[in-house]
Amino acid sequence: MFYGVSGGPDSMCMLHILNILANKTCHLSPTPMATLVVAHVNHMIREEASDDEKYVRDYCKKYNIDFYSKSIDVKKCANNKKIGVEEAGRVARYEFFNEILDKTNSNKIAIAHNKNDNVETMILNAIRGSGISGLKGIEPKRDKYIRPLIECDRSEIEEYCKQKKLNPRIDKTNFENEYSRNKIRNVAIPYIKKEFNPNIINTLNRLSELVSEEDKYIENQVKLVYKDILIEQNENQIVLDLKKFNTKEKVIKSRLVLYTITRLFGTTKGIEKIHIEDIVKLCNNNIGNKYLTPNKNIKILVKNHKIYFLNQK
Q1: d(Cα 281, Cα 285) in Å, to the nearest integer?
Q2: Cys-Cys crosslink for 77: which of 3, 88, 126, 160, Cβ 3.0 to 4.6 Å?
Q3: pTM above 0.70, yes or no
């Protein structure tokens, strides 16, 4: 198992706790809970970034933890890919994490997101017009990623760091309101706390849990419907029964489109709401030999009372 560690309060709290647990397990059993590996990305944005890297490196050296780091010019990446700096940083981190995952033969990646991060994500997703899936916020566990601190409040984490004298690094850019997440953290949430609900962090985290439960239920129903209307599935195509598809509610149809594309490609990246609506409309019209190409990799064809999801790669 390895951990993405920036050197800030969240990641240092997580590393400190899990290192203690791993060492305790080593004393109790010949088979340790996990072999700890730390991955650190220097985004090359702040002058103090090199000091952050040294801080994490020295901590790992002190406790004999394997340490990997990489310097990435995130602003340059953002310009090249024509995306925001925040998104470029996220992409760079996760690409590096996956690289180290393979290199160290690890099975899990621990990320130090907390309750407050979850609320910030929910609000950002709502502002962007997200559906139910966006209101789930940050999932505690998804595939190889785990988030041990997701039920901890940021104030609890900071208090833990203080008690254990960890002296984590503080990213001063977190207090600047240049980026959307910082505006949510520093402006929107304090205003909501003051004017509407002082317990907004816990309130929205409860909402996140409820939405996750309902989303899981809908997803299970979609899987059952998928099995019922599936005609053929292989690496090149998935074929569904058009007549049965058209008898379903709109929300199920939309989810079926996403689920089918995920089954075929492993991801729905590049598929937007407008694409889903167009595909559902194509199926509703039930006109043979009509097709859509949401992107260069996929073709959706309606023919002979069937829906063909074709892999164009």
Answers
A1: 6
A2: 88
A3: yes
